[in-house]
Structures are given as structure tokens and as C-alpha cells.
């Protein structure tokens, strides 16, 4: 099964943003980047204003990215990375941001050069039931830095709350036997309760060449009875 897209390059992100920015929005972003680079306290006021100033519309060719998301990435990149300042500012923008601002931070993480130091933000996002926040949290940064245990439970949570597994970056690479067992148990529990089984759960098991038995004793998609 397919998995989440790789993050755009910064060059592609900048081009897509420039394609939709108004003259006023472009001028605001240029000034804001300069202010953030020059002053340690500037980002706190500018980060929430990025959506209003640059727009909330989608970026051409970049699924699920908005102009506000991209503008916030470049504001974070304007922060000096040395001495932990960029990490501290990124954490603050997430902690004090609204849902849209938090999604922007999560999308920005693989582009900020923070290594694993910001994984606490991904872990925090996975505790929410906000489907858009969950989807943003399970991008390339989580695929690279989230622990196997937390990553498996995050995938299972997607199945519970209805987040498409297409949002999970590197799912095929990170899928292991333990995740397959967990998803198989989830499917059998749903079947035993007479509840609908998410198609993504069956697709994951099919990709792993494992399909659980139905209540009639046959495997899903098979007419051959299972052994007892």
C-alpha cells in the first residue's frame, strides 16, 4: 500500500508560495523573515499572523499544504539554529499555537534541521483525536525519529479515528511483524463485534500477505477454510 509523501524541497515550497502570494503578502513575508532573523522575540507575534497575511489557500502541486503553512516554515527557518534557538522557538510556536499553527509546525519539522530533538512535538500531537493534527504528525519526521512502539500505536490510532494510512510516511518501510499482529487483532475484534473493518486495515494486512479469518472460518478474500 502507498504511504505518505516526502516533504517538498525548500526551493519547491518557496516557488509554490510565491505563485499564490499577493504583492502585499510577499512584502509582509520578506519583512517578517528579516525581523525574525534580527530579533529573538519577533517570531511569537509574527507566526500567528502568517495565515492572515499570506493566505489560507492551497499551494499548487503540494497536497495538503497551504500558503500559511509555507510562510510559517520560512519564518521558522529564519530563526538562528545555533545555540538551540530554532528548537526553542519551534517548541514555543507549537505549544502556544492553535490547531492550524500546530499543523504547520509538524509539517515543517523535517525541513528545519532539528534532528530528533523535536520529537516531543510529534509525541504530543499523537495524543490528540484531531484527525488533521494526527495526519500532519505522521509525516517524514515521525517516520525518521518516532520510536517503533509509539509509531505502531500511532498507526493503530489512525485506524481507530479514521485517518487514512496514506498520510503515514514510510509505512511500507516501517511496517513490521508486530504492527501486522496489532492490526490483525484490531480487525478480529471489529469483526467479533459486528463492526465495519476499515479498508486500510485490510490493505495493510494484504500488503503483508496476512489476512485474518472471518467469523465463518475463512480468510478475508479467500474461500479456503482456515485450519484449527
What does this structure look like?
By secondary structure, the protein is mainly α. The chain is 59% helix and 3% strand. The chain has 13 helices and 2 strands; from the N terminus they run αααββαααααααααα. The chain has helices at 10-20, 23-38, 43-54, 67-77, 85-96, 99-108, 119-125, 131-137, 140-145, 148-161, 171-174, 177-192, 199-207; strands spanning 58-59, 62-66. It starts with 9 loop residues before the first helix and ends in a 21-residue tail after the last helix.
Work out the helicity level.
55-70%
Report the order of strands and helices.
Answer: HHHEEHHHHHHHHHH
Amino- and carboxy-terminal Cα gap: 30 Å
Give the biggest beta sheet.
2 strands, antiparallel
User: How does the overall form come out from the CA principal axes?
Assistant: elongated
Q: In percent terms, what proportion of residues is strand?
A: under 5%
> Radius of gyration, rounded?
21 Å
Average pLDDT, rounded to a whole number, is 91
Number of strands: 2
Outline the low-pLDDT stretches: 215-228
The largest beta-sheet arranges its strands as: 1-2
Number of helices: 13
Question: Structural class given helices, strands, pairing?
Answer: mainly alpha
Amino acid at each position: 500500500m502507498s504511504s505518505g509523501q516526502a516533504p517538498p524541497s525548500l526551493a519547491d515550497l518557496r516557488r509554490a508560495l510565491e505563485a499564490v502570494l499577493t504583492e502585499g503578502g510577499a512584502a509582509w513575508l520578506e519583512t517578517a523573515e528579516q525581523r525574525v532573523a534580527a530579533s529573538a522575540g519577533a517570531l511569537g507575534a509574527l507566526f500567528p499572523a502568517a495565515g492572515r497575511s499570506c493566505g489560507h489557500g492551497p499551494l499548487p502541486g503540494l497536497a495538503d499544504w497551504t500558503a500559511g503553512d509555507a510562510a510559517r516554515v520560512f519564518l521558522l527557518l529564519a530563526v538562528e539554529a545555533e545555540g538551540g534557538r530554532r528548537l526553542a522557538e519551534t517548541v514555543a510556536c507549537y505549544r502556544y499555537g492553535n490547531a492550524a499553527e500546530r499543523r504547520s509546525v509538524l509539517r515543517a519539522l523535517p525541513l528545519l534541521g532539528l534532528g530528533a530533538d523535536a520529537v516531543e512535538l510529534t509525541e504530543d500531537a499523537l495524543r490528540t483525536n484531531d484527525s488533521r493534527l494526527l495526519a500532519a504528525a505522521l509525516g517524514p519526521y515521525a517516520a525518521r525519529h518516532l520510536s517503533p512502539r509509539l509509531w505502531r500505536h500511532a498507526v493503530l490510532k489512525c485506524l481507530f479515528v479514521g485517518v487514512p494510512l496514506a498520510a503515514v510516511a514510510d509505512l511500507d518501510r516501517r511496517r513490521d511483524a508486530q504492527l501486522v499482529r496489532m492490526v490483525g487483532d484490531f480487525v478480529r475484534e471489529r469483526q467479533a463485534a459486528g463492526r465495519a473493518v476499515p479498508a486500510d486495515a485490510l490493505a495493510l494486512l494484504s500488503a503483508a500477505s496476512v489476512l485474518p479469518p472471518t467469523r465463518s472460518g475463512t480468510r478475508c478474500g479467500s474461500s479456503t477454510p482456515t485450519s484449527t
